[in-house]
Amino acid sequence: MKTETLFDLASLGLRAAEAALRRRRPASPGPDTRADRLVRRALPVAEKALARVVPLRAPVAKKERPVRRRSRAGFASTAILGAAVAGAAAYIVVKEQQRVRARYAPLRAPFRPELLDVLAPPGGGGRLAQSGDCLTDPHSGAVYAIIDGIPDFIAPSNAGGNLLASEDSWLQDLVRPLALQAMGRNRAGDAALAAAISGAAGGGWALSDPSGRGTYEIEMARANPRAHILCLSNKWDVLLEVRRRATEAGLANLYFVRGIPRLLPVRDGVIGGIWSGTGLHRYPRAERELTQMVRVAKAGAPVAGTSLVRGGPALYDLALSLAAPYLPGLNNLDSNSTLLEAVGLKEIRLFRDGAFVRFMGVRA
Length: 364
Known about the structure:
The protein is built from ten helices and twelve strands. The chain is of the alpha/beta class. Among the domains are: 113-152; 170-363, Rossmann fold (3-Layer(aba) Sandwich). Mean pLDDT is 82; it is low at 24-29 and 157-166.
């Protein structure tokens, strides 16, 4: 039995004895009995015993651990580590800001007339004609600006096209790839699939719709130097970043157009391979974007891409449930497969990586 338990029992017994010995005497006084004399003798003994037991049961204050004085070497190592972390963070921030400034440096690039072979008014139509710094539609009379060599099918021709204002901050540029990587994106698998799409185009046109920031587009251009890689996005940030990276890599087979994916400014049936690497989960009604991709693809041309999809590992599904308000086109695997078939793709293959699914089909 533990010492604490013995003390508890002793204390309880002594208090019971004290209560019994302190019982009230009769109201009428009388001669002392043998019991009264026993009470007078036993009560002081019980009180002394209780006085000894109670202090033993008092909580013992914990001894404070002595504070160890850190040596000068310890302070120096901490300071060096902190300086290294701060220096690394400052280096990353400065390099990212430099990259953003380089992205927006005007190149005064000329319009590349090869684009006239595939461009059309948004949503499809006939050939366009170049007129100075604009493209015109002979049938409707619509005019589309050319800004620093990039046709713009979104802003009016008189908008001026200010390319100096960033749409996405450098912090978003830095954090977004890490977030996608944490969700299980297989960059090597995506790059291999994008390269296969480029190879299928042969000496024709391949489309990145919507374009990413150059990772897969550069891979497509390198995998098939004969192909013309058309990069389409509604964001200047994206197009200028891909162009900057292509210029640094010395690649001349990348072309850039600003447009809306659900109204592709591309002629019908002229694209030999389509890659959509940013994800169908971004679109509230992905059937509109997929219908446009199928429209501009040649018969038998492959269409491939990625998307965040429910139904994977539990941890990824929990993350998707938290991010669902920002993913308007988030579906499960069966819904995505049905959608791909409905827009006119056949021979569909799916590959899961974490919360992502890579898909590939062929235009019927």
